[in-house]
Design brief:
Helices cover 37% and strands 23% of the residues. The model has no long low-confidence stretch (mean pLDDT 89). It binds adenosine-5'-triphosphate and magnesium ion. The site of adenosine-5'-triphosphate has 10 residues, from helix 1.
């Protein structure tokens, strides 16, 4: 049985003469968190954008759940199960936390909100949204408009929007950035739970979070994967120690 939900082969992208991703092959198995780490400018976000489809790759292939999605655009990819990359801009600032989640649920089901026609399905929608708000620990902030949420709360809301899309895979680009210790802990717990529904490709600079979460880690340097393995293997890998010179990997 094929235990891989996402299979990326030889993905490459150059900006002018600069090869940002260089024949990257990486995969994601069911129920796992695969962390992608590497120095600033290594090509991590570009790789995620190539998978999402917002950056066109020059070469390579992407298979999602045994379907070749290489030639699909970003909208088509989102529809069949690639979660949008993690970016604060997908939150609508004037809408409340609850309304943002409801909109994301509507986007998934591609239904329009019919205020009077189907109160039943609308109430189902709101209870589903509240369930998601509970998961991301924002239930008590559901009526607050997004622009008034704290940075950490907006990060949680972003994860909520991704959850609402029920994707086949999650691609998270630095979801812990700017979170305090409590926020990071909550996110770690949440990721451990949601990976059982949809596995996660995680870019993260917070090494403690990476080591707490990752089932596998790949290290990318100058657009190439230089090491890949379990947390234990990566911690013991001399190449990784060279890359992270100055950072104590324990
Ligand atoms: N649209 C673009 N045009 C030209 N160069 C780009 C473009 N997007 C990214 N780059 C360059 O590609 C390199 C890789 O960028 P990328 O954002 O993928 O790195 P990263 O690994 O995510 O880094 P960080 O850890 O700082 O987020 C950088 O040198 C960046 O300046
Ligand atoms: Mg980046």
């Amino acid at each position: 049985m094929n235990n891989k939900i996402l299979n990326i082969t030889n993905l490459s992208k150059s900006f002018g003469a600069f090869k940002v991703t260089d024949e990257i092959s990486i995969d994601l198995k069911f129920n796992e968190i695969h962390a992608l780490i590497g120095p600033n400018g290594a090509g991590k976000s570009t790789l995620i954008k190539q998978i999402v489809g917002t950056v066109k790759h020059d070469m390579g292939s992407i298979i999602l759940d045994q379907e070749d999605i290489t030639d699909l655009n970003d909208v088509e990819r989102a529809k069949i199960g690639i979660s949008r990359t993690f970016q604060v801009s997908s939150i609508i600032p004037k809408f409340t936390a609850l309304e943002n989640i409801v909109l994301s649920l509507l986007e998934r089901s591609q239904k329009t909100f019919q205020l009077f026609k189907s109160l039943n399905s609308n109430s189902k929608l709101f209870s589903e949204a509240k369930e998601i708000l509970l998961q991301i620990e924002l239930e008590d902030r559901r009526k607050v408009i997004a622009s008034e949420l704290s940075h950490g709360e907006r990060r949680k809301l972003e994860v909520g929007l991704a959850l609402a899309m029920k994707p086949k895979v999650f691609l998270f680009d630095e979801p812990m950035a700017g979170l305090d210790e409590t926020g990071t802990k909550m996110m770690i717990n949440l990721f451990q739970r949601i990976k059982l529904n949809s596995p996660i490709l995680l870019i993260e600079h917070d090494m403690d979070a990476v080591f707490a979460l990752a089932d596998r880690v790949s290290v990318i340097v100058y657009g190439k994967i230089v090491a890949s393995g379990t947390v234990k293997e990566i911690k013991a890998n001399p190449i990784v120690h060279d890359v992270y010179l100055g950072y104590e990997i324990t």
